[in-house]
Specification:
The longest helix has 28 residues. α2 packs parallel to α3. Strands 1-2 form a two-stranded parallel ribbon. The protein has three helices and two strands, in the order ααβαβ. It folds into two domains: about 45 residues, no CATH class; about 55 residues, HUPs (Rossmann fold, 3-Layer(aba) Sandwich).
Length: about 100
């Protein structure tokens, strides 16, 4: 907890978060426009990725989650930690796709 009676640090953190949000939303809008994804079909949330994906899927009756992973090779590392966390506890179907450079 930040204990700053003047509010200076808290205000700076809030301003920084607002700047980060604006930058992320602008980047998402650019990418979605390039891919033809309508703005009303995009969503941004804050928090731990797997937890927020679970909450969003449940709240919006999502049928399928598709996500990419950069998981490393090897039996224990087939999926990245976020993809693995999403798979555990999700009620809907999921499709995890390996992304990255072709070998």
């Amino acid at each position: 907890m930040i204990n700053d009676p003047s509010g200076g640090v808290a205000d700076q953190l809030a301003s920084l978060q607002a700047d980060l949000d604006a930058s992320a939303n602008a980047e998402m809008a650019t990418r979605c426009d390039e891919l033809g994804v309508p703005a009303d079909r995009t969503h941004a949330v804050h928090g731990r990725a797997a937890t927020e994906i679970h909450h969003f899927a449940e709240a919006n009756a999502i049928d399928l989650i598709v996500m990419g992973t950069h998981g490393q090779h090897g039996l224990g590392l087939l999926l990245g930690s976020t993809a693995n966390a999403v798979l555990h506890g999700i009620a809907c179907d999921s499709l995890i796709v390996r992304v990255g450079d072709a070998a």
